[in-house]
Amino acid sequence: MGTKTYICLAVAITLLLLTPPAQAQDEQWLQYHSEREAQRIVSDMGTSTPEVTSDKPTNIQFPDFICDEPFFAFWPSPMVTPGGLWMAFDRQNKTGQPYDLIYIDSNANSNLTDESAVKSYELDYRDSRRTKFGPIKVIFEGEDGPITYHLNIEFYNYSGRRYLYIRSAGWYEGTIDLAGTKKHCVLIDYNVNGTFNDKSLNAAECDRIRIGKKGDQDTRYVGNFIEIDDALYRPEIARDGACIKLIKAEDVKFGNIRLPQTITEFSAGGENGLFKLKLENGSGPLPVGRYRINQWALEHEDEKGKKWKLQGSGTSQKGDFEIFADKETGLSIGEPIVSRLEVNKKDSGYSFSQNLGGRLDEHIELIRNGSQPPAPKLHIKSKDGSYERTFSFEYG
Fold it and tell me: Which listed site, 72, 226, 352, 369, has its alpha carbon 20 to 30 Å from 213?
């Protein structure tokens, strides 16, 4: 009896070791890259626009500046204890030069006197309005040691107005194994705060992920789920972006979305991620949760055989909706579309602009046979008929 029990126990342990649960997967490590042209190389990178001020912060140590009026800005990041890093803009000469020097608190010690000034890599002394810096390295302290991150910075200063554009200069990518298949994974810090695992209903505050073939541009939101090859996974992404774990999603509760049957394309995103639905008669499933419409499209063919495509994108909170378990949520999107004409009087002249608006104030784009059709015309005729002319609008 004792021998039989021992053999069964040994077999059971062996089976457990050889057949781990489907959900278990080791962390898969990615490689960090940084480039001055990161936005062009990777695309789908967002921009942070901190306020620029001439008021010198009192709780920060700064070096002696060359110019008489340095400018200051605070870049927010949860990766450092102060909640972000201060930076200061200076000139190589007191006057006559653009703001071509930047100091940044790269080690987050609230002291810029231990930092070296970084010179702008692109400036035009005939046009002192714009300077570019980067990639600028900053160091975060992680649980396992220092974490390197890079920023690309663009500073505008003209006519008493100042604008600052900060973009991530770094991203993670590499080959991962998914259900026995090799995939290429890219992680992007879209909201430019130093982390790579931010989820949000607001697309601007949500990081980005790609999993597919190398070079694919199918970018999704970082979220609770990601759909790959018709299977649903739960991604676990390291805060610093260094590694990812993908777990097969099980016991997921779904609801249904109901759209006008004329809609041929639809995508929506939120903390659950970005979903591009395969619609059947205007209907499709989504995991339970809150979403915001990302994009929709419908197509028609006119009597001359020309194919027209109408698409809407960039909805505000008006495009928010919620999916409930085993229930259907209906959305009113698509046609009718409203054509708006705006008229502005300036001095003795008038300016006219025309745009298309959707039901949810989304941006509307009209495509004919795969390209943008000619801009519409505007016909103006005075009441007494003494003035009559036709003008053509221009895009842009």
Answer: 369
